[in-house]
Amino acid sequence: MGEQPIDDWFMREVLPLEPMLTRFLQRNWRNEAEISDLRQEAYARVYEAALRERPQMVKPFLFQITRNLMIDRLRRQSVVSLESVADFDWMNVSDDRPSSEAYVSARQELRLLQIALDSLPPRCRQVVVMRKVEGLSQKDVAKAMGITVETVENQVAKGMRLLAQALDGRRAQVTGQARRYDFFKRSRDVR
Amino acid sequence: MSAEQDEAAAAEWLVREDRGLTVEEQGELEAWLSQSSLNRVAYLRLKAVWQRADRLAALKSPLPARPRGHIWNLPAAAAIAAALILVAGTGWFFFQQRLPAGRDYATGIGERQAVRLADGTQIELNTNTRLHAEVTKMRRIVTLETGEAYFDVVHDAERPFTVNAGNRRITDLGTKFSVFRKDDDVRVVVKEGRVRVEQIGQPLASPLVAQEGREVISKGSETLLTSKPDHEISNDLSWRRGVLVFNQQTLAEVAEQFNRYNRRHIEVAGSARDIRIGGSFKADNVDVFVTLLHRGFGLSVDQQGDRILVSH
Lengths: 191, 312
Prior knowledge:
Largest sheet of chain B: 13 strands, mixed
Order of helices and strands of chain A: HHHHHHHHHH
Number of strands of chain A: 0
Distance between the termini of chain A: 65 Å
Oligomer: heterodimer
Structural class of chain B: alpha+beta
Order of helices and strands of chain B: HHHHHEEEEEEEEEEEEEHEHEEHEE
Low-confidence stretches of chain B: 62-74, 82-100
Helix content of chain A: 55-70%
Distance between the termini of chain B: 49 Å
Number of helices of chain B: 8
Largest interface: A-B, 61 and 58 residues
């Protein structure tokens, strides 16, 4: 695998910045539904750039690429909102000091993981616990739970995706916020 | 392709990898990864998370309790142990008897902790909670000093599992339940199975058995048994996910709940106290909550150090 060193670099240097990147996108991009796509595209651009030459300073590089990507997208949209470009909080991420959130202690890390684990649906959680806490193989998990290997595989796939989502640093989601906002309005009307 | 579809494909590959790839599959994976950087970064992202999840293995043994310090200090223990080596035999027996059985667990404001006891029982401590757990061959006793905890008990007819909270004793009859205690307020929510709730020191009072979907609310010698629909039970237990769910509660009550989880306290003044609130919120995200109060109700929000004053 020729890309192995770049893969390792990407996992070690770029991915830990994800919570910060996600929140940056949340602050600066109106459509919550597009955030995962934007983030993935930013990652792909960073990855491709690193194949040519690895950037010295990862954080400013990632955010610069993300900003360019956002501006490209805004330009392609029929209505260009200058305001949304001006809104970007450029200041926040211009330095390359390791952010405290990208490097958490082992204890904090375990707690983050535990919270993410607890957010999984019960069956999925049980499969992940058996696989990762108890250290059983997928096959043994199937035996222990009396379910098929296919079911275990589905739950593992779901589990890793939900864990990734729970760990991506997203603040209360906009969809959720919109719903809550309705709740507020409704409770206000009720009064 | 959207990020979501790439992610689904990446997850499938990682599952197959987790199971073990054939040489042929290995080749297919390589091809898929080389096809697009979008595929590759989706794959690396999930791979990194799945590797991070290996750390969860640390949960296998019970998490260490916060040292409380006053129970047994090491030099004293060492001195006694040294003395005991001289006495040997029967001395060891008494030493065993004198060792405090069980351990203390505690969480600070806004913290949660999951604990697995030696018998396999899982306890989840909510914010600002102190409890003592003792598991011996004969019995299993948890004393909830303050706060809230959720119990997923491994049933053992030979060794009853009891929780003492204030003047109440809750005995597991095969179940999952939570207990909240603040001074002499004790609330028990039964998620599955049954529990017996009795008043300590009142052997004549008939104990009460609460089934799944019931809540027992007690204060002093008064006890109230109510039944709750499933979704309300899960709302009551949503703290296990770090979330608070409200259903038309007054802002005063909601603020009180938030204040259990945060050092910065919301203080609601005047008629704003009676506003009804619904919705779900992250327990530790006071800022989002007060912003919504401001936007949704036009309430004024005044931050003063650790106090957040909310009023009309």
